[in-house]
Amino acid sequence: MRTKIYFDHSATTPVDPEVLKAMMPYLKDKFGNASSAHSFGQEAMKGVDSAREAIANFLGCEPKELIFTSGATESDNIVIQGVIKATKEKFPERKLHIITSAIEHPAILEPCREMEKAGVLVTYLPVTEKGLVRVGDVEKAITDDTVSISIMYVNNEVGTIQPIAEIGGIVKAVKDGRQKAGNKLPLIFHTDAVQAVNYCNCQVNELGIDLMSISGHKIYGPKGIGALYVRGGTLIKSIQLGGHQERGIRAGTLNTIGIIGLGKAVELVNRKQSSSAELRRIKELRDKLVEGVLKTIPESQVNGDLEKRVPSNTHFSFLNAEGESILLMLDLEGIAVSTGSACASGSLAPSHVLLAMGVPKEVAHGSLRVTLGRFTKEKDIYKFLKILPPIIKKLREMSPIK
Amino acid sequence: MLYNEQVMDHFKNPRNQGSIANADGIGEVGNPVCGDMMKIYIKVKKEGDKEIIDDVKFETLGCGAAIATSSKLTEMAKGKEINEVLKINREDIANALGGLPPAKIHCSVLAADGLKKAVEDYRGKHTN
Description:
The structure holds two protein chains of two kinds.
Chain A: E1 5-6, H1 17-27, H2 39-59, E2 66-69, H3 72-90, E3 97-101, H4 106-117, E4 121-125, H5 135-141, E5 146-150, H6 164-181, E6 188-192, H7 204-207, E7 211-215, E8 226-230, H8 256-273, H9 276-296, E9 300-302, E10 313-318, H10 323-332, E11 335-336, H11 342-345, H12 352-356, H13 361-364, E12 367-371, H14 378-398
Parallel strand pairs in A: 1-11, 3-4, 3-5, 5-6, 6-7
Antiparallel strand pairs in A: 2-8, 7-8, 9-10, 10-12
Chain B: H1 5-12, E1 25-30, E2 37-47, E3 50-61, H2 64-77, H3 82-85, H4 90-96, H5 105-126
Antiparallel strand pairs in B: 1-2, 2-3
Helix pairs in contact in B: 1-2, 2-5, 4-5
């Protein structure tokens, strides 16, 4: 049987065998509801508590500052909508302003658009052609009405690492200034760190973060589980009504199985992924792949900053070859990748991230995201480098543009 | 699977792909900015009063659906009378392929338009 190659780790990751092993008892005997007072419930809560501690340790926060959610989309929705909801109640007379970037995930952009309909002013910051938010732009955009700033840590398409710690520093200075000036409106800094957990420093105090979204399935954990770090004292409210779980910020029975999986996955990132040897290994494989592609395929380019970028990500454009067709042909050869082409997005427009970077549409349509991971081998890179060039050649021969 | 087997078969093994050096009509539609671009070449022969598509070829830059619909269109048009092929619309192509995902229906528009343009080009050259 031909072995398949998975180069789409930014879409999702396989569950690490150690994560699966940790989850199994909670799918069987340890089925209790963590909110129950009896031994079944307490046994489940014990597992939840230790997962919470492992994650708190990774983020450098208090365990009670973590809210478990169904994933980063829910975390992001609580951030955008929950902060506005709570702020409106406390400051009903104030105008409210949100700052975000043009390259955020739809889980941020869509709730922001919804808030605009409710009268909130939203600034969507542009990015450089390398896919980076400018710290100066954030600083300039902050007004006395700004209540939240949400900038992703690592972009999911081009893998660029945003200047989160620098923005955190600015936010802190503005907070101090507001206190002196008597402006009681909070300024809350959120980062969607879904794509960062595997590779970046996520210590919330070092970064100056108030809220952080993370997801299980991007870090070799299960799908349907995520978390939101909520700094103690942050003005935020639940957007889903129900029970009093998770400090009243997220109603609903705790997903014990998912939480155990997320806890183990974070623990493994700490142990396996964060080691400089593993980061170097992935980076070397990625660099080899990039070099090979650029050398063998004419009219190809890498999109996004080359340095400020997670080691697992590379993002190409091939002129005069369409992304979905490249993806399909690679898939027929057993290689899984992703594209920012319009045809793959379900809409008629190519990736909003590439367009925000000023990539021309015709170049965006020929884009290909290749993301490596924990189980990527060197031979996978060589196989990819053997298979891709003839595919691009074939598609270009089929094209009316010569 | 995003596409059904028939569509994938046309994508993997496109029929009538290429160009015709001395084509009687050429239709070019779409552009690289919108993502899909297609060029349809036709060769026409006359049999009495009838004008028949003797040969048809395509060149396409685009997604799986764009390539598969171009390929299917050429298959549907070859050997047919011009008046007949002008009636081929996007639904006909999509149906002949056993259906396309809803988001991809618009891709088949391009193929139908490309052929119409090629016929117009031919007629423009052959009036009177």
